[in-house]
Amino acid sequence: MIRLYSYPELYGVADNNPFGLKVFAFLRLCGLAFEHEHIFDAKDAPRGQLPYIVDDGETIGDSDSIMAHLTAKYRLTIDDGLTAAQRDVDHLVRRMLDGLYWVMSYSRWRDPQFWPLFRDAILRTHPQVTADGMETAQKYNFQRYHYQGIGRYGPADVYKKGVADLQVLADLIGKNEFLFGTEPRSVDAAVYGFLANIYFYDIDTPLKRFLVSRGNLAPYCERMHARVMKPTPSR
């Protein structure tokens, strides 16, 4: 049995971290049976980062590495038929999402307008989390933002970066049901991991306002959510 370890849910989304939600969505889209354990403490995770999986005693971290492992081991066909150009787009989108992560994280932990809303949502949803623990995590994230560089920008400039990424996604999806057509691929799991963590949150950040303003991103997110949250038969 595959066991996924990732951060807890929030606002009805299965993981409040986009990388964990990405793996969750991938597992669901592929119909793989798995157990899901929500944790806050990542100290025992590979490289101290969530998500990770344990599969037949083997521990694998990093969302893309997890998906590659599962695809090879279980001979998954989700990306069969993609052209070389589509695989290049897949790669570039995933790298862009790595950058969008910092903007999303900044909006929760750093921006004083939205931090109290995020903090209170976590405390309300997960009583085992303490206010002191959230404050400690916030200070840690401040350090991360400074060294990564995004913490040296003002909020308006930070959100410009994230909005530009969302515009690219809106352009790429266009009128398609999913990124590459009528069926979701593994890259759609990645895109969903991020969009769901913006769209379904009851926090009106500039990222959410822009997402909702596009004619196709919210419906795309709803379609993916319906697919991902619908129980699938065991493989």
Rg:
17 Å
State mean pLDDT (0 to 100 scale).
95
Any low-confidence stretches, pLDDT <50, length ≥5?
Answer: none
Question: Helix tally?
Answer: 9
Strand percentage, roughly?
5-15%
The CA-CA distance between the termini, in Å, is 11 Å
Write down how many β-strands occur, each being a DSSP E stretch of 2 or more residues.
4
The largest pleated sheet is described as: 4 strands, mixed
What level of helicity do the residues show? 55-70%
Structural class: alpha+beta
SSE string, helices as H and strands as E? EHEEEHHHHHHHH
Give the overall shape, derived from the CA principal axes: globular
Strand line-up of the largest beta sheet: 2-1-3-4
Task: Reconstruct the topology from this structure.
Blueprint: E1 2-6, H1 18-30, E2 34-38, E3 52-55, E4 58-61, H2 63-73, H3 84-109, H4 115-125, H5 131-148, H6 155-173, H7 186-199, H8 206-213, H9 217-229
Helix pairs in contact: 1-2, 1-7, 3-5, 3-6, 3-7, 6-8, 7-9
Written overview of the protein:
The protein has 235 residues and is an alpha+beta fold. The chain contains nine helices and four strands; from the N terminus they run βαβββαααααααα. Strands 2-1-3-4 form a four-stranded mixed beta sheet, with helices on one face. Strand 1, helix 1 and strand 2 form a beta-alpha-beta unit. Helix 3 packs across helix 5 and helix 3 runs parallel beside helix 7. It starts with a strand and ends in a 6-residue tail after the last helix. The mean pLDDT is 95.
